[in-house]
Design goal:
Blueprint (H helix, E strand, L loop, with lengths): L1 E6 L7 E6 L2 E4 H12 L10 H6 L2 H16 L7 E2 L5 E3 L8 E5 L3 H7 L8 E5 L4 E2 L5 E3 L6 E2 L2 E7 L15 E8 L2 E2 H7 L3 H4 L5 E2 L4 E3 L10 E6 L2 E7 L7 H9 L9 E3 L21 E6 L4 E8 L5
Helix pairs in contact: 1-3
Length: about 300
């Protein structure tokens, strides 16, 4: 399934949605109508993507059945919304943790002129960085070197600690596009990366979370970044130094993973600062991140308002 959060235009209520070939299904209404039509009451009715992950496989299976029923039932298709009539939100509003992996593609290490890490290089972003699809990335006044990073985002569905690599993928709830936006001058001048990675709006993600049944192998996905239609990054997740299962296991050995945690798995070569000359983002640019099977994450770039 392709799970998402959305509002209907300026309506205040946030809906759990399922993106289908016919449009976006309102999952809550879909489950209620399905229960009435079939006399099958769900154990639990999730109201967000995070709740859908936390509720477990039985609820997710019920949700899929309800959606399939709605798509085949003309009277239930009133719950369908066209994507241009809704405001799409980040699939996970406030992740418990956003954990990122640095230098996880060999060619990216080469363009930086650094050695390939012997163990995953982990850093964090705060939840203030989360940005909805189509919402603007704001260039902070304190940076002149705003950069993009196309990444595969892994969303934890089942938490745990000391997870064996062989079991790691069973802890994944789904995958999404992730842009690890970076202020390079802050990142490189500080000696550590927190400030350069955690400015407001520096984690665009979405537009959907795609469950694992649709992505059987996270190590064979094309990954692309375009700026104003120009391809800047193009690679495949098989080029990762440390695959997804290894990363999950490694992180779980020092901190407990929770449902809704997001792991950004590193970026391939082609970032702006490594180009000759460098190509940093500026106001008016349009950044598109596309990981195979996960849709397209589109973000305009704006200057930070002077009132902030």
């Amino acid at each position: 399934m392709k799970l998402m959060r959305f509002r209907v235009n300026t309506e205040g209520k946030v809906h759990l949605g399922v993106l289908t070939p016919l449009g976006i299904l309102d999952a809550e209404s879909c489950m209620k109508l399905y229960a009435l039509a079939t006399s099958q009451e769900p154990l639990y009715e999730p109201r967000s993507v995070l709740e859908a992950l936390q509720s477990g496989p039985e609820t997710q299976t019920y949700l899929k059945k309800a959606c399939d029923w709605a798509l085949s039932n003309p009277s239930a298709q009133t719950m369908l919304y066209h994507s241009h009539k809704v405001i799409t939100l980040a699939p996970i509003e406030r992740p418990p943790k956003i954990l990122c992996i640095g230098r996880n593609y060999r060619d990216h290490c080469a363009e930086e002129g650094v050695e390939v890490p012997k163990t995953p290089l982990v850093f964090a972003k705060y939840s203030n960085t989360v940005l909805d699809p189509e919402a603007p990335i704001l260039r902070p006044r304190i940076t002149k070197c705003l950069d993009y990073e196309a990444e595969l985002g892994v969303v934890i569905g089942t938490g745990g600690k000391h997870i064996h690599p062989g079991d790691a993928l069973s802890h994944v709830g789904g995958y999404l596009n992730f842009n690890d936006v970076s202020a390079r001058d802050l990142q490189f001048s500080d000696g550590q990366w927190l400030r350069g990675k955690s400015c407001d709006t520096f984690a665009p993600m979405g537009p959907v979370l795609v469950t694992t049944d649709e992505i059987p192998d996270p190590q064979n996905l094309k990954i692309t970044c375009r700026v104003n239609g120009e391809t800047r990054q193009e690679s495949n997740t098989r080029e990762m130094v440390f695959p997804v299962a290894h990363i999950i296991s490694f992180i779980s050995n020092f901190c407990t993973l929770e449902p809704g945690d997001i792991i950004a798995t590193g970026t391939p070569p082609g970032v702006g600062f490594a180009r000759k000359p460098p190509k940093f983002l500026k106001e008016g640019d349009i950044v598109e991140i596309e990981v195979e099977g996960l849709g397209i994450l589109r973000s305009p770039v704006q200057e930070e308002p002077t009132s902030q």
